[in-house]
Amino acid sequence: MSIYVILLLTIYILSAFIIFPLFVHFTKINREKDEKVPIYQITNHLYKITFISQFIIFVSAISIATIFLGSSATDNENDEKKFFLFFTIGGIAFAVVYIFNQIVVPIQNLLIFLLAFQRFLLYFYPRSEKYIVPSEKRFSCIIRWIYFIWILGFILYIALVSKCISAYIFTHVYTCPRIYSTINSAIYVTLDFLVIFSSLFYISILISVRKITSMSTSVMRTRPEKAIIYQTLILIIVKLLCLPFVLIEIDFLLISDINTNSIMNVMYYPFFIIDILTTPIVFQITYLFCNKTNLEVLLKMNFRKLKTWSIVCCGYTSSNIVNYQISNISGSISNS
C-alpha cells in the first residue's frame, strides 16, 4: 500500500510544480479558439475547478511542509506556541481541501457523466441537439442549482454530524446514526462509478470513428472535445490502476473496524483520496498532449532557460509564445 501512496504523491507533486503552470499558460493561449466550441461552458468550468483545486493543494503542501519544519525545530517547551501555530495552519489547510473536494469532485464527476451522455445522444440522435445543448445563461443557471442543492445537503450533513459529536463530548457515547455517513458515501461512490460507466458512451462513439468525420453535428470535431473524451478515458484507466490500492484499503478498514462501518463508508475514503490526487493531473496532461499545436510548442520550448519559465508563469498572451517560437526557429537556423 505504501508504494501506491508514494506513487500517487509523486505524481501529484510533479503536477503541481511542473505541469500546472504549463496547463494554465496554454489554456489562456487557446481561450479565443476554445470559446467557439459548443461545450466551452463545461470545459471552462472544469478548468476553473482544476485551477482552484491545484492552488488549494499547492498552498496546503506548503503548509504541511511548514509543519514538519516547525516540528523539527521544537526541541524545548518554549517552542510549544510555534508548534501550535504550525499545527493550526495544517489543520485549516486539511479542512479547506476536504470541504472543497467534498463539494466539487462529485459535481465534477456528474458533469463528466452528463457530458458523455450528451455526446452520445448527439452522435446517435443528431436531432436532439437543440434540446440537450443549453445556452450559456441556461447552463450557468443549471450549474448554480446543482451547487446550491449539493452544498445545502453537505451543510445538513455537517450539522447532523456536528450535533452527534457535541453529544459525544458530554455523554461519551457516540449515538450518531450510521445512515448519515452511509448516504453521503453512497452518493459520492455512485458518482465515481458513473464516470467509469460514461466510458461506454465514448467507446460506442470511437467504434464508429469513420462516421464521426462526416458528421454535421459538433461531436468530436474540435480539440477541446477530443480532450474531454481522452480525459474521461484516461481518468477511468487511472482509477482502474489505483484499484489495488482501493481493495487493500477497503480490506484494511473492514478488518480494523467492521462493526462500525458500512461497505459504502469504507469505499469512500480510498475513492476520495484517489480523486483528489489523480483527477487534476489527468485533466491537465490530456489538455496539453491531445492538442498537436500544444505538443509541437512544448517540444520546441527550452525549459533550461529562465526566459521560458518567465513566459509560462508571467506571459499569457499568444503573441508571447509566437515570438518565442520565432526566436527559437531563427536560433536553430543560425546554429545550423
TrEMBL record:
Residues 34-283 form the G-protein coupled receptors family 1 profile domain. It is found in: Membrane. The keyword Transmembrane helix applies. InterPro entries: 7TM_GPCR_serpentine_rcpt_Srz, GPCR_Rhodpsn_7TM. It comes from Caenorhabditis angaria. Signal peptide: none annotated. Its main location: membrane. PANTHER family: SERPENTINE RECEPTOR, CLASS Z, SERPENTINE RECEPTOR, CLASS Z-RELATED. This is G-protein coupled receptors family 1 profile domain-containing protein. The chain crosses the membrane at residues 5-26, 46-71, 83-101, 145-170, 185-207, 228-248, 268-290. Keywords: Membrane, Transmembrane, Transmembrane helix. GO terms for cellular component: membrane.
